[in-house]
């Protein structure tokens, strides 16, 4: 591990330990590294504070803070973490240290910049997000068996669209597929009912951290 690489800087919004609230890994203890900046403006975004808020930190400082939490699961999120290319260096160091790494990305940027064996959580933007035209559809071909796809659904229209995309790209043969509820925009029982009625082989996702804690509370 070269010390000069550890002096690279990334703009970080917050680092905290919580339980993973989403994906098929929901419920596991995890250290979250939320990076500053996003190139999308989704209608339901619950982390608008990460658009600009944050401070530059060296990789050395970030890793030291992560080590203090004594947890081997790391989720790098945003914002959009792939906007900062130095994130690749951070991941390489963390992999050397035997951390299990999840990267949550909005699907608009090439996920192949990430090192192998990182668990990539790819968000496919539904129409009600207002951002589905920003998707890089080539990312579907870049997925590996360790990755997951997430649809955040705000309406029946979004659900039908997500169902068509899942079928069109044969997503269930590629990766785990998660259908999540846009908090406050759709009742979970509605989405659950549609999934059961249509016999879809997908996982229903609720935002666990918003059930446990206040939906407006940060750092959880």
UniProtKB/TrEMBL annotation:
Pfam families: Radical_SAM (PF04055). Substrate binds at residues 19-21, 34, 77. One of its GO terms (molecular function) is 4 iron, 4 sulfur cluster binding. Residues 25-215 form the Radical SAM core domain. It catalyses: 6-carboxy-5,6,7,8-tetrahydropterin + H(+) = 7-carboxy-7-carbaguanine + NH4(+). Its cofactor is Mg(2+); [4Fe-4S] cluster; S-adenosyl-L-methionine. SUPFAM superfamilies: Radical SAM enzymes. Binds 1 [4Fe-4S] cluster. The cluster is coordinated with 3 cysteines and an exchangeable S-adenosyl-L-methionine. Its EC number is 4.3.99.3. Pathway: Purine metabolism; 7-cyano-7-deazaguanine biosynthesis. Keywords: 4Fe-4S, Iron, Iron-sulfur, Lyase, Magnesium, Metal-binding, Queuosine biosynthesis, S-adenosyl-L-methionine. Mg(2+) binds at residue 47. S-adenosyl-L-methionine binds at residues 44-46, 79. Homodimer. This is 7-carboxy-7-deazaguanine synthase. It comes from Candidatus Scalindua rubra. The gene is queE.
């Amino acid at each position: 591990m070269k010390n000069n690489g550890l002096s690279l800087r990334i703009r970080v919004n917050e680092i905290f330990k919580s339980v993973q609230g989403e994906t098929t890994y929901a419920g596991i203890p995890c250290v979250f590294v939320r990076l500053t900046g996003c190139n999308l403006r989704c209608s339901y975004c619950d982390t608008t504070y990460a658009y600009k808020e944050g401070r530059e930190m060296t990789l050395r400082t970030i890793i030291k803070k992560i080590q203090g939490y004594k947890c081997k699961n790391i989720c790098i999120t945003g914002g959009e973490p792939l906007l900062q290319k130095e994130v690749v260096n951070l991941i390489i160091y963390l992999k050397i240290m035997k951390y299990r790494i999840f990267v949550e990305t909005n699907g608009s940027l090439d996920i192949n910049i990430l090192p192998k064996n990182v668990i990539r959580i790819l968000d496919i933007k539904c129409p009600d997000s207002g951002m589905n035209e920003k998707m890089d559809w080539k990312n579907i071909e870049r997925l590996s068996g360790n990755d997951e796809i997430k649809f955040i659904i705000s309406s029946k229209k979004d659900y039908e669209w997500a169902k068509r995309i899942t079928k069109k790209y044969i997503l269930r043969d590629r990766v785990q597929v998660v259908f999540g509820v846009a908090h406050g925009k759709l009742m979970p029982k509605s989405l659950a009912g549609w999934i059961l009625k249509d016999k879809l082989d997908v996982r229903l996702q609720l935002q666990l951290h918003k059930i446990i804690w206040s939906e407006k509370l940060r750092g959880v």
